[in-house]
Write a structure and sequence with these properties.
Elements lengths: L1 H18 L3 H18 L4 H19 L1 H19 L5 H8 L5 H7 L4 H5 L8 H17 L2 H7 L4 H9 L18 H12 L3 H8 L6 H8 L2 H13 L4 E4 L15 E9 L2 E16 L6 E9 L10 E10 L5 E3 L12 E12 L13 H38 L1 E2 L2 E2 L4 H29 L5 H26 L1 H4 L8 H12 L4 H16 L4 H8 L4 H31 L14 H25 L7 H26 L7 H24 L4 H11 L11 H10 L7 H7 L13 H12 L1 H13 L10 H7 L5 H18 L18
């Protein structure tokens, strides 16, 4: 009987969850259920009394405002103020930066799929497509990863091409001489370059993400924009941005770099300016930059500008030819050749109008950086990582068709198929997230939380893809030389993990730590009320907000349980027969995530900030819900094509499995075991539903990258990838070999059948083709064709070797 009472309670509250109402109608409905069950049941009177008393104890404090404020809201408000973790100004500005988009829907526990599916599908303009097909394709053909590594620089022709065709000006509006491309076009260009060379991509993407141009567009004065943007667009100025220093990496607030407001001489006149002293490192394009964007802390000890002395983090543009600027030395990040190095300056005087945005923007540098960084991390690094995944899909899929062991192509081995599936599945999932997020930026969003998700997960998945590719290629991948198309990408894979927010930081502190406050429907407003000085009015507003928060939390608890018990079959869902169950699964997990996020913040308070592994698991769940949403959005935008179904299924099973695993791990490690047990009943009432991909699904997806050129699923996977066709190019040689094998397949099958039947028995050491020619199984033209196939295979399989005199270091090492 107690079970039926509890079920009635859950059903009543579920009405709240699915009708998005205030809590009172739901509580009234629950009371009605209790009354009805009490009337028709034979439950003992004492149990009915206890249940009614429990209901009254819940309903009365909520129903009577004065009672609710005194006994519920006021104590909770006081508790909330006590447990609220201390927040630095830089943390506050990071949290308030950017906008909330689909992450807010996931945090609500009730995502509105129409909002996502109705958002516009990104499209390239004719001009953008022509730039990809023309200058971008041409630039890729100009470079070789091996030669870049040997010279430790791009070839001069590539630098000239970059400047002439405006690769540094993709985001600069046309009125200033730039391209004025969309975020999606910017992402497409960066991705294609990354499929050719990470060094090439890095050279181009940094000025188009976090750099002077982005900052000038959003915060520069009209005079600064008119002066600098045309010079940046034409390549007359090469920019870099100096943020990280030896003593301040992730904790930018600890930077010791100073700008002291003072009077000084500038072009023969005494003006108010800044005396700058700094030391920076890891600065991309730094060794060749002519314009240095600089982050520093500004101080006004003489009060030349006002009463405030500590002005805060500020940003300025410093021409590198000013006396005192030390620039030009290089770092070698794991041997990568893109320009990167330290710079410094001591007592370098610049006028105040060198501050980006002028005097009015002094002290607002961290806010400026956070807003611009969210856009850059949404585009540049995700595009580069996706390019790497597409490239490994291309070369690994082709190599496993060409390379044989035991007379069987590598692609036929199940162990290899597992690696191929992860490469192909990851590449398609990463591409889906990249496209969706670039589209959000083009809609005017500055998705700070989603950009952290993309930065972390896509760079990690890119590193995973190159790792699997190296495993499959074996010795081919580890012998450096002109024929090795993987080695330098493998060497450089950790670089993207460390930049623009180290991945450990992003996962453990930023994704959920920032998202829980920024994207939650109520927490940011509650925090703002907790810091208000007018306590009486703040308490009244907190009381109203708390009422909505309670309804939100109870509704998500009911939704999670009800959807779990019903196996996700309640309510309407968009999509086709394949995607509809996945939409419902995401509804269930979004409700579960929202419940656990609320419960963790309620029970742990400020301690959650220090429980990084719990925060990381919540961040993982949110991330995989977003990646799964992106996959479904892409499938919808393509109008549910059948050829994508295996990739969609792989992406969703992978994402849902990892989301469930993250929530399961959170519950296993929940500090309060009793609360963790109760939450597990609500989240997984029938256990986990998505263990991950099956072996059969892996085999299907592995087969996609083993198909012939022109297959729709393969072309969808590789779209945007640079694909050279010449046999003189080590990547082009793969396609040449595939084509020759395809044309000669009947002859090759004929020889294999003759060997198997004993009809062909070459003498020890005798070439197979010679034996077949002598036996009359092949004529001269057939033999020539088979020899050409074997030569093409060897061109792919062979690795480089060098004479002793070709391998030497200059005396004393690198100079």
């Amino acid at each position: 009987m107690l079970f039926f009472w509890l079920l009635a309670l859950v059903l009543g509250i579920a009405c709240l969850a699915h009708r998005r109402t205030a809590p009172f109608p739901a509580l009234g409905l629950v009371a009605g259920f209790l009354l009805l069950m009490g009337f028709f049941s034979h439950a003992p009177g004492w149990l009915l009394l206890l249940l009614w008393l429990g209901w009254l104890a819940t309903a009365l404090p909520l129903a009577l405002p004065e009672l609710r404020r005194r006994w519920l809201s006021a104590p909770l408000f006081a508790w909330f103020q006590r447990v609220l973790p201390p927040m630095s100004e830089t943390e506050r500005e990071a949290i308030e930066a950017g906008t909330v988009w689909w992450d807010g829907e996931l945090f609500s526990g009730r995502p509105d799929w129409r909002k996502l599916l109705d958002s516009p599908r990104p499209q390239l303009t004719e001009e953008e497509q022509a730039f990809l097909d023309g200058p971008t394709e041409e630039l890729c053909a100009m470079v070789s990863d091996w030669e870049i590594g040997q010279q430790l620089d791009l070839p001069a022709t590539a630098w000239t091409h970059i400047k002439q065709h405006g690769f540094f000006a993709l985001i600069i509006p046309k009125e200033y001489g730039g391209k004025g491309f969309s975020a999606f076009a910017h992402s497409q260009v960066a991705m294609k370059l990354a499929t050719r060379s990470a060094d090439l991509a890095s050279t181009v993407i940094v000025p188009n993400s976090l750099g002077p141009a982005e900052l000038l567009l959003h915060y520069g004065t009209d005079q600064q924009r008119r002066h600098y943007l045309p010079r940046l667009a034409s390549g007359e100025d090469i920019p870099c941005f100096a943020l990280t220093g030896p003593l301040a990496g992730s904790d930018a607030g600890a930077m010791p770099d100073l700008g002291i407001v003072c009077k000084g001489q500038w072009q023969g006149e005494e003006v108010i300016g800044l005396r700058l002293t700094w030391e920076k490192r890891y600065i991309t394009l730094g060794p060749v930059a002519t314009l240095l964007g600089l982050a520093f802390k500004a101080y006004d000890p003489e009060h030349l500008l006002g009463d405030e002395e500590d002005l805060g983090i500020s940003l300025a543009l410093v021409p590198t030819d000013i006396p005192g600027v030390e620039i030009g030395r290089r770092h070698l990040p794991l041997g990568a050749a893109f320009m990167n190095g330290p710079n410094s300056g001591k007592d370098v005087f610049v006028p105040l109008d060198f501050v980006i945005g002028g005097q009015a923007m002094l002290g607002k540098g961290w806010m400026m950086l956070m807003n611009c960084l969210s856009v850059g991390r949404s585009i540049s690094l995700p595009a580069a990582a996706t390019g790497l995944a597409k490239f490994t899909s291309l070369v690994t899929g082709q190599y496993t068709r060409i390379r044989e062991q035991f007379n069987v192509p590598l692609a036929a081995f199940e162990g290899v198929q597992e690696a191929l599936a992860r490469i192909a599945g990851n590449a398609w999932l990463m591409d889906s997230a990249r496209i969706l997020t670039a589209s959000a930026v083009d809609q005017g969003e500055k998705p700070s939380v989603l950009s952290a998700i993309l930065k972390y997960h896509l760079t990690e998945l890119g590193r995973e893809c190159i790792g699997h590719a190296m495993d499959v290629h074996g010795g081919k991948g580890i012998i450096l030389g002109p024929n090795n198309y993987l080695g330098r990408a493998w060497q450089g894979a950790p670089i993207s993990i460390t930049v623009e927010g180290a991945n450990i930081l992003s996962r453990n502190l930023m994704i959920f730590g920032q998202g829980a406050i920024r994207s939650h429907p109520f927490v940011l407003r509650e925090m703002a009320l907790a810091s208000r000085e007018d306590r009486h009015q703040a308490l009244k507003e907190f009381d109203q907000l708390l009422l909505k928060h309670i309804g939100f939390a109870v509704g998500n608890a009911a939704s999670s349980l009800l959807l779990g018990l019903s196996l996700g079959r309640i309510g309407d869902a968009p999509g086709d027969n394949l995607s509809r169950p996945y939409f419902r699964a995401l509804d269930r997990l979004a409700a579960a995530f929202a419940l656990l996020a609320d419960s963790s913040m309620l029970l742990l308070g400020g301690e959650l900030k220090r429980r990084e592994r719990l925060s990381a698991r919540l961040g993982d769940a949110l991330s995989h819900l977003y990646l799964a949403s992106a996959a479904l959005k892409r499938y919808h935008d393509r109008d549910y094509p059948e050829h994508l179904q295996s990739l969609v299924r792989w992406a969703l099973e992978e994402s849902l499995g990892k989301a469930e695993s993250a929530l399961d791990g959170l519950l296993d490690n929940f500090p309060n075991a009793i609360a963790g047990g109760l939450l597990r009943v609500l989240v997984f009432p029938l256990g986990r539903r998505h263990p991950g991909r099956s072996d059969a699904l892996d085999a299907e997806v592995a087969g996609v990258i083993g198909r012939d050129r022109g297959d729709p699923a393969l072309e969808e996977l590789l779209t945007g990838c640079y694909r050279p066709q010449s046999a003189d190019d080590p990547v082009g040689a793969l396609q040449v070999a595939i084509d020759q094998i395809g044309r000669s397949r009947p002859l090759l099958q004929k020889l294999q059948a003759a060997l198997k039947s004993g009809q062909l028995q070459p003498a020890p050491g005798e070439p197979l083709v010679d034996a077949a020619l002598a036996a009359g199984l092949l004529d001269a033209e057939d033999a020539r064709q088979v020899r050409a196939v074997e030569a093409a295979r060897r061109r792919v399989i062979d690795v480089d070797d060098f004479a002793k005199d070709e391998l030497h270091l200059r005396e004393g090492g690198i100079r």
